[in-house]
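Could you join me in thinking about how sequence relates to backbone shape in a protein? We need material for that, and I hope you will provide a protein of your own picking. Label the sequence line and the structure token line clearly, so we can match residues to local backbone shapes. Would you write everything just below, so we can both look at the same thing?
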Amino acid sequence: MKQKHRLPLLLALVAVLAMAIAACGSSDDSSDGGSSAPITTDQASETTGGTQTLKVGYVPSIDLGVIKVGEEQGYFEDEGLTLETSPVDSGPNIITGLTSGQFDIGWVAYAPPVLAVGEGNAPLKVVTNSSNQGPDGTNGGVLIRKDSGINSWKDLAGKKIATNAPRSLFSLTVPAAIKKDGGDPSGIELIPLPFTAIGKAVESGDVDAGVVLEPFGSAALQQYPDLKDLGDSAAQVFAEGTPTSVYVTSEKTAEAKADQIAAFKRAYDKSAEYAKSHLNEVKVAGGELAGLPPAAAKQLPLAPISTDVTAAQLQPLADKMVEFGWLKEAPDLQGFVGQ
């Protein structure tokens, strides 16, 4: 997250994302994840001009460029699908939108759906894996002040740490990184804040540290020169290649709209294959969804694209949830991934 000369572009992006996310509700887990009232699953998919419309909720990221280039190549149209996409501020709100019928499909990191399945609050099914964890330094960062005295993961023990949701992936990997480094994570205080507000909160001293994704990390580092990036907490905990994000649906939608969900997966598989050899095109397309100019989008890391996932690959995530008290026992991951 150390690219230079992109502050105007990145700040413009952050402003656009802030407006889009604000329109979708707060990061409170009880939010419905959208600005409109929940609608039923039957209402969420409509027939338009001979095609079926699927409503897809997503947390803003350039990784969404895969689905965008798939639309541009006509893969979804070939399957008789039209996609209506909506930005949402956090993974837990995606899950709420799926269970309420507001969305047919949601794009999210694995932590919220695995947690929901484990708690028994949301019967969910994987539609397709989206991406895997990349090399150290490409999966997000933890912002701190340069004069904070924090020089290692264990130094975060007992600190106030901003995160976009109390039960996000980073809310798990940061305490896990502290523990791995020999620190005691039990005394940390997680402060829910939008990604757009975390840099300022760290700079002002309202929190001691804050987890961020791109482009929010680069924008904050350039806007606030007193900040630095401690590191990539996900890379401290999970192996490179671990599945990280997923298109997921509710069991109710999976049964009621089995043909459309299967069509979505076929179209996405084709999109992913095309995307692997057109990475800059994916970044630009994802940037358009997030309001990011092409020049800035091309400079950001893109998570490795993969449509494959197994229960065994998700087991380390479930085990960490049990270890840190998120779950009493690991959920039925084979049922979740459809094995």
